[in-house]
Design goal:
By secondary structure, the protein is an all-beta fold. The chain is built from no helices and 26 strands.
Length: 281
């Protein structure tokens, strides 16, 4: 499994995560650095990966592309006039390489790129202010975004235009779809709302102890969250209750996390930790 991590110091790192022994497979993991690039001239604000492709966005108004299979930097994309705040790949289930890359920016625009060979297809205005987060539906046909304008927007990716927008009671900083696309999650301060994708109806509200800074949907209706509490919390979104919690997972706040396919779970912030997550909790 490959991991990527970005930093305030403008560097992007790539890692390989492997079992310490293969015969028999070890529960202990080894993390090996495969590349490091000073890709940006300003802090890295967001990263994304799918298959062998990876991307980083920065407050220097650029996106850099990487090939994880060859540990190579493929260069920058220059189509922006403001900071890149969120990146997301769309990878169809039958393909090993992503079909599209979507970016969100501080000027409220969303850009759609074809990944072969990374050409801009469409840019459109979705919000009046900076976009905080962007989530692509598993179908690849639509995306949700939340912004500092206090709105939730839905964009039609087939037409490249915003199709719906509503004002929220409080600014949301995170939005994610679950693996099926039937539900989505929105975080605002220490609360996370679990919504039906069909009509945006609120099913549960998950109360964290402190502000939530990152979230990653897992299998079986599990949602992993982290933030100012320094802990990793696994929520059962079918019941709205905590499934389990890794207390004090880090010495400082958690800034980002991601769940791999299968049982390997990794989390990224000022340092990098990898956790084996059992499905039999």
């Amino acid at each position: 499994m490959s991991l990527i991590a970005g930093s305030y110091e403008r560097f992007i790192w790539g890692f390989k995560l492997k079992p310490l022994t293969h015969d028999p497979p070890s529960q202990s993991l080894t993390l090996t650095q495969i590349f490091s690039y000073p890709s940006h001239i300003a802090p890295i604000t967001t990263v994304a990966a799918a298959g062998p492709a990876a991307a980083s966005g920065s407050s220097d108004d650029t996106i850099h592309i990487y090939d994880l299979s060859s540990a190579a930097s493929l260069g920058p994309l220059h189509h922006f006039s403001s900071s890149i705040t969120s990146l997301s790949f769309y990878c169809p289930p039958n393909l090993s390489f992503p079909r599209n890359l979507l970016s969100a920016a501080a000027d409220g625009t969303i850009s759609i790129f074809d990944t072969e060979p990374f050409v801009l297809l469409k840019s459109f205005r979705s919000h009046k202010k900076c976009i905080n987060d962007l989530a692509v539906h598993p179908s690849g046909k639509l995306a949700l975004s939340v912004s500092r304008d206090g709105c939730l927007a839905m964009s039609n990716l087939m037409r490249g235009k915003r199709s719906f927008c509503c004002r929220l009671g409080k600014e949301a900083t995170i939005v994610k779809f679950d693996a099926s696309g039937d539900r989505f999650f929105m975080a605002s301060e220490e609360k996370i709302g679990v919504h039906l994708a069909e009509d945006a109806r609120l099913l549960f509200e998950l109360d964290n102890q402190k502000r939530v800074l990152c979230a990653a949907p897992g299998e079986g209706g599990i949602l992993f969250t982290g933030g100012e509490s320094r802990s990793i919390t696994a929520w059962d979104t079918n019941s709205g209750k905590v499934a389990y919690c890794i207390e004090d997972a880090h010495s400082t706040r958690l800034k980002g996390e991601a769940k791999s396919i299968g049982r390997g779970y990794y989390e990224v912030q000022a340092d990098l930790s990898c956790w084996i997550i059992s499905q039999n909790f």
